[in-house]
Amino acid sequence: MKIIKYKKEKSGKYKIYLEDGSTIDTYEDVIINNNILYKNDIDSKLLNKIEISNNYQKIYNSCIKYISIRVRSTKEIKEYLYRKNIDKEIIDKIIKELTNKNIINDNLYTELFIKDKLLLTNWGPYKIINKLKETGIDNDTIDKYMYLFNKEDEINKIKKIIDKSIKSNHKQNINIRNKIYINLINLGYNNDLIVTELNNYFKEEYYD
Question: Which of 91, 94, 127, 153 has a C-alpha 20 to 30 A away from that of 79?
Fold first, then answer.
């Protein structure tokens, strides 16, 4: 079928006008990858190829939008696509393309995740590491960025949490100490550091 004209629309999409009055909506990348811009007509074989390419590009673009909200791990992208019931073959292809273009990078993800949580949350090292593992980051990758955890910074955070907890409670007794201890453990701080700092605030040493 003869192509009458091309019209570029928003978000990198194109509309192809055919001689029978029908139109095809497609993406700029599909136009380029299939060299459609320099063709005079579209046969059934090319039309089928465009439809397949359009479907792939739509899924790919949805991943880009998902990643634009925040950096994602490889596992997070895979789970996102599985939830959309995308075929494994397409998922593997998209993951490979995103990786080759450095759009998903588990090393960068790990580094940014740790820095973000250390700066913006009260999470301790253990909680940060566990959350990384939940997103599919392996131990070898995590080990590369263990240098970002600083013992002195961890102690200072523990002190601030203890200070805040004590100030918000009028009675400094064993129950308050227990609550602070459990809270700090749940936040992922080192047990020995917690006990040492608690012993600096409370005379009774309830934890060995």
Answer: 127
Residues 38 and 6: beta-carbon distance below 8 Å: no
Nearest to 106 by CA among 127, 78, 69: 78
- Domain span at residue 181 reads 151-201
pLDDT band at 206 (very low <50, low <70, confident <90, very high): very low
pLDDT at 35: 80
pLDDT above 90 for 140: yes
Check pLDDT > 60 for residue 203.
yes
Please tell me whether residues 173 and 86 are part of one structural domain: no
DSSP characters over 118-155: HHHS---HHHHHHHHHHTT--HHHHHTTGGG--HHHHH
Round to whole Å and give the CA distance between 38 and 46. 13
Assigned token pair, 117: 């949580």
